[in-house]
Amino acid sequence: MEYNLKKTLRIESIDAKGIGVSHDENGKVVFVDGSLPGELVQAKIIKRKSSYDIAVLEDIIISSPHRVIPRCKYFNICGGCSIQHLDAAAQVAIKQRVLEDSFCHIGKVRPGFLFCPVYAETWHYRDRSRLFVKFLQNKDKLLLGFYERKSNRVINILNCPILSRKINILLSPIREVLHKLTIRNSISQVEIAVGENSVSLLIYNSCTPSRYDIIDLVSFGMDNSVDVWLHSGDIIYKVGDCSYEDTSYSLPEFEISIPFRPKNFTQINHKLNRILVSKVVGLMDIKSSDNVLDLFCGLGNFTFPIARMANKVLGIDIDDNLICKANSIAVNYNLQDVVSFIKLDLFSLKDSFFNNLDPFDIMLIDPPRSGADLIVRLLISLANNKRPRRVVYVSCNPHTLARDSYLLVTNGGYRIVCSGIINMFPHTSHVESITVFDT
């Protein structure tokens, strides 16, 4: 059912998705996309629920002093960025408030203190991206870009101000070479990853490329200094010369370089990742006698820096490819006596999980958006003398962080020493944070 009810609303706050929040004259919550805190707006109700309404912004009567003109011409169409209309400093402040509100309202807990938000460049920060592909046969045109907001229609992106400049330079050449291919109608998406020594392009397709396709892709790779890979079904293979040196990102403070291949998970913002790792390792307060457990370790983004300081460190992740590569990195840096890795599904742990491990002093958790509910429940079921003295939790979802914090504090007897955000994804509503728990 559609509504044509217009209301004048004062925007009070912004939610975790970057949508303005208000209350109407009856106290009912109204969400107004595109509005900012402090603004007086004219909005039209388009959907009504029992506890809230959804409205579209029609006019801004009083504008926020923090409202800016979005740099990207696709803003409000593209489903990528959601808060480009808010200045960078205010974005950080609002994300910090989202974290605080989550602790207060969901976790019913309060950190000892909030450290200053950590941030870096706000434009051209994204070193890897997945772009969608759509070939319009009737127009003989190939679209390469992101999905429209709340849609699976592909926007043909010519330039994106949050993508690395190296990626932006490649958008037109990639579009041109994909259009040439006989398999262009079977290509669904591409993934571009920028490393410090190379750039890789992974093409997702469902058909076998022709000999001419291979020639075109090899030529594209040579002309643009790009390693081209094809992903068909469960098979990933490099096009052309099979000799290949993994691309990598570095952590200079710890004298570590992490090699990775297409589909290996890495942070999309390499510069801020260095700051993140340094901050996390510093907050862990590692002693040379400490044994450390790193859960959801991936390629060892935190594990190897920790290994420079700890007695022993164990990294656990479910991805066999990441674990195998992490073990080879350990050998390469002669750290195999300090660091070890095992493959395990951390969402299906047995009750005996922690008891079967060697004792550890510090635990690092860096889970996906769903959080670490089972891990936390098993941890707080341990006897007090078997629990780690410090837990450092890196989160990409304030809501699940707050949920898990409630268990650690209320049921587990931990206290939150400090917490704060890392603005890993400027101009989006995503919030990365670090929280420290002590016994």
Automatic annotation (TrEMBL):
Pfam families reported in the protein's UniProt record: TRAM (PF01938), tRNA_U5-meth_tr (PF05958)
EC number of the protein: 2.1.1.-
Gene Ontology biological-process entries: rRNA base methylation
Superkingdom of origin organism: Bacteria
Enzyme class: transferase
SUPFAM superfamilies (UniProt xref): Nucleic acid-binding proteins (SSF50249), S-adenosyl-L-methionine-dependent methyltransferases (SSF53335)
Family: Belongs to the class I-like SAM-binding methyltransferase superfamily. RNA M5U methyltransferase family.
Alphabetical list of NCBIfam families matching this protein: PRK13168.1
Name of the protein: TrmA family RNA methyltransferase
